[in-house]
Amino acid sequence: MRIRSAIAVIAATIALTLAPVAAHADTVDPQITAALKALPGGEIIDDHTAYWPDLTMTLTVVNPLLRDAIGGCPNGSVCAFVNATPSGTKLSWTSCSTFSTTVIPGGVVRSIADARSTGSLQARNGTTVVATATAQSWNTVTAATDNVKCS
Q: Dihedral of CA 8/11/14/15: which sign?
């Protein structure tokens, strides 16, 4: 009788331990799943990372939410950059309004990006629009800018 009880406890423990793994498996990036099948011995670290301890190798795939980023502007954000391309030092916002850009290092905005699915972002000098980036795009800014406005 004790053996049956011990087996039941062990089986319940295993079932409870594996339940979160099964739920987690649904959210693992398919590229991670394919890599683990192609090269056994790896471990899932999170939905976007696998690690092979024997090889001391890590595979990291880009989070799908970041795949729609525009340069260095994260998905769902609008950004103003000091570089002529959407990279490097930036100001970024996840809400939509009119924002001052005078605090950007060097005081010059050279590009803007709109990494949202709809709307647009304007680089402006006062109320004069000097550049526009529509949703999922970026644009170079060649004139003085003191604010950005998104819609």
A: negative
